[in-house]
């Protein structure tokens, strides 16, 4: 069916939306027309630049190509918007007749500064990336004691699979039965927790302030700062949060345990630590580290208009650090 739009601008807006979605799901180097193509994408296509791929995808692409000395991939950096990464490979000498040597790779950084492009470690500036790559072609780059020739670029291919694409997984109607032995978390006895004030509601949980009693052990000084110290007492107490699964949602108890299992296996300074799970009668309770100011979204709504920009930036960096770790 035809679509009638009120203006050329509206038509281009729709095309841009569809084009962006296509780049996310099918082909990261695609555009429908020049009017909606991002300048950065056009520059990438002209120079054989990939998007911000992870290193393992770069190496996989280089391995798929014909084994050739001086093969390279150039891509945008994952961390720096104005940096490009040149990944070059070569083969190690043969260890035995008929056995190819292993692939070795090195990364060299190219920085965009204003209108110039500079290879790190070389003080010469180039007006375009193409000029820099043309000069590098046939050259040898040094990395420690290793030398890497720069000969042939591996540009993006239409519809190429990489971590730049978002794929939709077809839902499997057959239910998978999870083996409970695959779950891993600390089991906390009901007499080790004390439930105190009700703090609010989470997603299908009631949240309470609580105390976790932990038996002390000689030499266990690494966690001492979290415990209250009482003389001649082998147990110590930690301030915790108790997330009690609502009894009306017992159908998701397995997912609740899976979440606890996953979070018990990660540890980061900006992630709330999961101490374990307690089963108290019909109640399933996740025991988490107590965070002084509570959930971030609740705090921001409570302090709306009174939160300093600097604090927001600090928290954004902390969130980014935690997400990067995950």
Explain this structure.
The chain is of the alpha+beta class and 326 residues long. Among the domains are: 102 residues, 2-Layer Sandwich (SHC Adaptor Protein); 106 residues, Phosphorylase Kinase, domain 1 (2-Layer Sandwich). Helix content is 25%, strand content 27%. The chain is built from seven helices and 14 strands. Strands 1, 2, 3, 4, 5, 6 and 9 form a seven-stranded mixed beta sheet that branches. Strands 10-11-12-14-13 form a five-stranded antiparallel beta sheet. A hairpin with a 6-residue loop joins β2 and β3. The longest helix has 18 residues. The protein starts with 7 loop residues before the first helix and ends with a helix.
Summarize the structure.
With 326 residues, the chain is an alpha+beta fold. It has seven helices and 14 strands. 16% of the residues are buried.
Beta-strand percentage range = 25-35%
* Major sheet characteristics: 7 strands, mixed
The CATH topology label of the domain at 168-215 and 235-292 is: Phosphorylase Kinase, domain 1
Point out poorly predicted stretches.
217-233
Task: Tell me the series of helices and strands, N- to C-terminal.
Answer: HHEHEEEEEHEEEEEEHEEHH
**Assigned CATH architecture of the domain at 168-215 and 235-292:** 2-Layer Sandwich
Number of discrete helical segments = 7
Report, as a whole number of angstroms, the end-to-end distance. 44 Å
Rounded to an integer in angstroms, the radius of gyration calculated over CA atoms is: 28 Å
Structural class, please? alpha+beta
Shape: extended
Number of strands: 14
CATH class of the domain at 168-215 and 235-292: Alpha Beta
